[in-house]
Amino acid sequence: MVKFDIQNLNAWFEHKHVLKNINMKIEENTVTAIIGPSGCGKTTLLRCLNRMHELIPGARVSGKVIFNGVNIYDDVDPVMVRRKIGMVFQKPNPFPMMSIYDNVAIGLKLNGIRDKKVLDAAVKRSLELVNLWDEVKDELNKSGASLSGGQQQRLCIARALAVEPEVLLMDEPCSALDPISTAKIEELIRKLARDYTIIIVTHNIQQAARVSDFTAFLYLGELIEYGPTRQIFENPQKELTEKYLTGKFG
User: Fold this and answer.
1) What gap in Å lies between CA 166 and CA 78, rounded to an integer?
2) Quick one: which of 79, 125, 223, 250 has the fewest CB in 10 Å?
3) Does residue 131 contact residue 161 with C-beta atoms inside 8 Å?
4) Read out DSSP for 183-209?
5) pLDDT in tens, 56-89
6) Would you say residue 96 has pLDDT above 90?
């Protein structure tokens, strides 16, 4: 089943045209990696998929992003869009003044949920999903900032999962982590893909090969090539893609 049908998507910052006629379909319960050199539009594409791009002054979008059959740029509440399409950022960003528990529960509380049993169950479920429960269950009242970098990133993923999204957007989620923490996040991505659709921006070509089912290669705001990861890496159809993957780019 197609989760996203992106049609003629363009994005600008003021007068700078950063995404140019992007067309791609993303399947449900898959991991899609977006790769390409710095400044090619990877993060902008990600942010267009849950209407975060428009939060930047001077930013605008044209085209369609059809999610579950509905164009999210029609008369749709962007808050509802972001509830269904969660975001995990490059640098772990737990709320430092909040406990581990409250970091996970904050989205539910903002949605009006106050029942302690409901919150407790959601916090435990979310922390278990990211393999963090056993590590923190006895110190849920400690600050989220007290955790290691890798634990903080898993906490942020748990926070995104607590509101039960259908999609997780991940913008370089391992770039600030050590190799052991990176391996845990990559294992987690594959596990979560059983129940969620995941789209990950990464500069790490090897990471894209390890975790993704599909890969999109962007260059100067254009989608150069998109397809099954194995095909992209073993038999790229475009010369630019081959140069990028073999380190002969530029």
Assistant:
1) 15
2) 250
3) no
4) HHHHHHHHHHTTTSEEEEE-S-HHHHH
5) 999 999 999 999 999 999 989 998 999 999 999 8
6) no
Q: What separation in angstroms does the CA of 195 have from each of 31, 85, 231?
A: 11, 13, 24
Query: Could you tell me the pTM of the whole model?
Result: 0.94
Distance CA 94, CA 236 (A): 39
For the record, the structure tokens of 74 come out as: 């029609």
DSSP-assigned beta bridge partners for residue 32: 199, 214
Quote the tokens at residue 2: 């197609």
What is d(CA 229, CA 98) in angstroms, rounded to the nearest whole number?
Answer: 39
Say if CB 185 and CB 174 are below 8 A apart.
yes
C-alpha distances in angstroms, 220 versus 161, 217, 244?
32, 10, 13
Q: What is the dihedral of CA 9, 10, 11, 14, to 10 degrees?
A: -160
